[in-house]
Amino acid sequence: MSKNTLILGTRKGLLILQKNNEQWQLVSESFHGVPFSYAMLDPRTHVLWACADHGHWGQKLYRSGDLGKTFDEVDAPKYPEGATMFDVFSGGTEKPANTSYLWTIVPGGADEPNCLYIGTEPGGLFKTTDGGETFHLVESLWNHHSRENNWFGGGRDQAGCCSVVVDPRDSQHLYVSISIGGVYESNDGGQSWNGRNKGLVAEYLPDPHQEYGHDGHCLVAAPSNPDVMWQQNHCGVFKSVNGGQSWTNHTAGKVKFGFPIVVDEQKPDTAWVIPALSDDKRIAFDGALFVARTEDGGESWQELRQGLPQQHCYDVVFRHALDIDGNTLIFGTTTGNLFISEDRGDHWTSIGSYFPPIYSVRLCNWK
What we know:
The chain is mainly β. It has helices at 139-142, 147-150; strands at 5-10, 13-20, 23-30, 36-42, 47-53, 59-64, 72-74, 84-87, 93-96, 101-107, 116-121, 125-128, 136-137, 160-166, 174-179, 182-186, 194-195, 216-222, 225-233, 236-240, 248-249, 258-263, 271-275, 291-294, 302-304, 322-325, 328-332, 338-341, 349-352, 358-364. It has a 4-stranded antiparallel sheet with strand order 3-2-1-30, with no helix packed on it. The chain starts with a strand and ends with a strand.
């Protein structure tokens, strides 16, 4: 059964659309004017989780058991007393760490219904084992020896834990991607971590091939074979076929800089990205929006343009603003456009063109 609900985190609130008679309709608008960095429905519990950036009032975390009709505020993750971060604006001196952004919230394994992970800025990973009543910093990652000299901000002031991957075969097997820092793997539920960055390239570093300091914008594992991993990186598209032990570069032509990446549910060598012009421009190529698809593991890429704006277009798609369900792909853009394809990207249609800037797009089934 195809998924019937679409959750949008936007610059001006949390929006929910549902599919009715083959048409997507807006059914809920919450928190008008408040930016939401990420929102998702936990498929294990049918609890909606939403991460809000209240600006002056800080980061807020909300949950709903009735698909947004009502919300409870949950204490957002807080760095423990004594945790420090390095202030790049004061010559690298240390200052108290504080939660300045909630990047993502990811369910734990199916056998851990009360476990969730939240990735934050300045790079810390938080975990709850009681359904969100309390979150604690995963200190083994925060205290990793690479953090002091290799974690730093790219588009934001501090590093961000932007991607969390839980192996569906083993809930204790985790990956995170730090932007900027790199990919880390844990085989023991987060008690210890190892860098997994062999083969990645960081063109902005004096040594582009050094072990840490890489900027993975979005890290995903292939659902049908989680040992096949993909990442849209600041410096290109990379794939691993051995669970992150090594990476190969599949950058080609316009397929280089971008944010999101998704993988086919049955075919680990089929993936989609949405490229942007460059890290300094961050606009569509030549004023024309396209989605790139590979069906051969990144050896070649096809530009999919039919139904997408091909002139005077400035749209960019953020790292969590593309999702997939079978043959259906949906993405939202920084200028509030929402597009859908039901044939694997060959053709696109607009669901709406006047939404606020869209930060996250997640398809789900509401019971």
